[in-house]
Sequence to fold (208 residues):
Amino acid sequence: MAAAAPARAQNIFQRLDLDKLRLEGVGGVVGPVSPSTVVSTKSYGVQADYGEITPHVRVGFSGSFWSSRFTDKVVEQFIQQLEKSLSNPADSIKFDRVKVSTISVEADIRYIPTNTHAAVQPYVGGGLGLHIVNAESKLIQGTFVESALDNIGAGISALAGVDFLPTHRVSVGLEARYTVLGTLRFGTVRAGGMFHFSRSNTTKVSTP
Fold:
């Protein structure tokens, strides 16, 4: 069994064809994002297609940015908790909105059941990303709360969508994505387009 394990691992990597990955297309996306405890806003991003690693499975990379603020309700609840610890009940803490923004770089794997050159291509998949979160407000400036909100962390995403290829070089698509990043979770709907330098197809068609 120990001798067979390296052979199986080598066979898996050979089937994935990781050495064949290359930039096949670039594009842009935009759409609404709805983070938990944060006011909904728009997300802007770029994406790149790196082709198939095995039949029907493609690899892609994307970068995105969005900026918003925590809801007033969440901030007010935070202030109320702070005021409970004040020695003088007559004292109060001035309300100030807490802005938050993220920059994300993600790697996705998509399963596409159709042929690479099909006009309509639905897909499902998942992603792993690096997310830079920044929070700003006079209310939390210089405190451990700001330090806790400002972080660089890994997140995971589940995604599903569909691409339409009106031509071999151009595709447009719609995608729904849900990302979990620590205590921050957000759903995104993205619409965009991509220009393809080439679009390889590793799927082999069997012949009788």
Remarks:
- The beta strands are 25-35, 41-54, 57-69, 99-111, 120-136, 151-164, 170-181, 184-196.
- The two ends are 37 Å apart (CA to CA).
- Residues 22-86+94-196 form a domain with the Porin fold (CATH 2.40.160.20).
- The CA atoms of residues 23 and 50 lie 5 Å apart.
